[in-house]
Amino acid sequence: MTPLDFAREEDVFASGAYWREYYTELGHENAAAGEFLREIAAPLMPIGGLDLLDAGCGPTALYWALFVPGQNRIEGFDLNPANIAHAERQIAQARAGTIDPSLEAAARHAVDLFGLKISPAEHIRRKAQQIRKLGTGDLTRPWPCEKGRYDFVQSVFALECLPSWESFEFALNQAARALMPGGRLALVNVSRTNEWHCNGMGFPTLNLTLDGMKQRIAGTGLELIEIREVESKDVSVRDQGYGSIILTAAQKPLRASA
Hints:
The protein is α/β, with parallel strands linked by helices. The protein has one domain: Rossmann fold. The chain has helices at about 15-25, 30-40, 60-65, 80-95, 100-115, 120-130, 165-180, 210-220; strands spanning about 50-55, 75-80, 130-135, 150-155, 180-190, 195-200, 200-205, 225-230, 245-250. Helix 3 links the parallel strand 1 and strand 2. Helix 2 (about 30-40) packs across helix 5 (about 100-115), helix 4 crosses helix 6 (about 120-130) and helix 5 (about 100-115) crosses helix 6.
């Protein structure tokens, strides 16, 4: 392949190329990311479920909701209206009993993880019912949510696509602001690359490392719970421009430090 031009003109989200390349199959890294969301969210589990925010949800709000256990109340936002439209269409179809086949492998994996005695289709339908509100919003500006509102904030394959480290740190601080004391943040990001690929084009990313992520989490006042890097096996089936992902979890202290 010739060197990729950084994409500016084509919206690979609106065209559906992103979903087709990254979510038609479950894949190794999506399974790892889903398992991580479950791992970090499960210890919180109040009887009434979690208030959950998906920040930079893309078209995948329902996809990642499948992996967070409980009877939750889910909200999300994304800068691209095409992503919100895709997610809302998928949610409406699931509620009506029409399941996107791309979701079934993810739902099957989630059902197995949770030990549920329901079909993948029923799991998708139930999770679709939990998504209360999606809207447009910018990760680099004050987030459209209340301070201290959420038990759980997740952001999957989003923050590394921000334009600068300043905007990345701003988003981390907005996530900390959105969490209630004791709430948790779960991040999934590509690592050790300056670009990711889709539909034969390159898109710039911030070059994340374990040490860099640890330093930036420390700057938010959140307490690091878990951080690890996972080598992606999906490089054998698609040209994605990166070979690893970082999984990061942090918790807001119950009390502010003196």
